[in-house]
Amino acid sequence: SFKNKDISKSPHTLKRKQAAPEKPAAKKPKGGESSKPGGTSKGSGNKDKDDNKFQIGKMRYVSVREFKGKCLIDIREYWMDQEGEMKPGRKGISLNPEQWNQLKDQISEIDDAVKAI
Description:
Blueprint: H1 2-8, H2 10-19, H3 22-34, H4 39-51, E1 53-57, E2 60-67, E3 70-80, E4 86-95, H5 97-105, H6 107-116
Antiparallel strand pairs: 1-2, 2-3, 3-4
C-alpha cells in the first residue's frame, strides 16, 4: 500500500522520468561492460531479439529473451534515445514460462471481465 501512495505522487516521479532517459543511457554502458564476454553473442542476440519482438501497440512490445540462462517473456514499453534507437523502458513486466502459461490459460476469463466493464 505504501507503493500506491508513492505512485499518487507521480508528478514528482514524472519530472524524474523526464531526466531518466539520460540515466539509463549512462547505465547501459555498465551493462555492456559486465557482458563484454557475451559481446559477440549479443550481436547475434540482437538479431534474435528483433525476431522475437512482437508489437502490441505504439512503442509497446512483447519480446522473448534469455536472461541468466532463463527464458523470459517481456511485455514492455519502449522509448527512443537521442540516437533514434529503441530502448526498453521501466514500465513493463517479465514473465517466466510458467507465469506466461498461467496468463494464457486465463485469457478467456480476462476477455469476459473486459467485456463486462
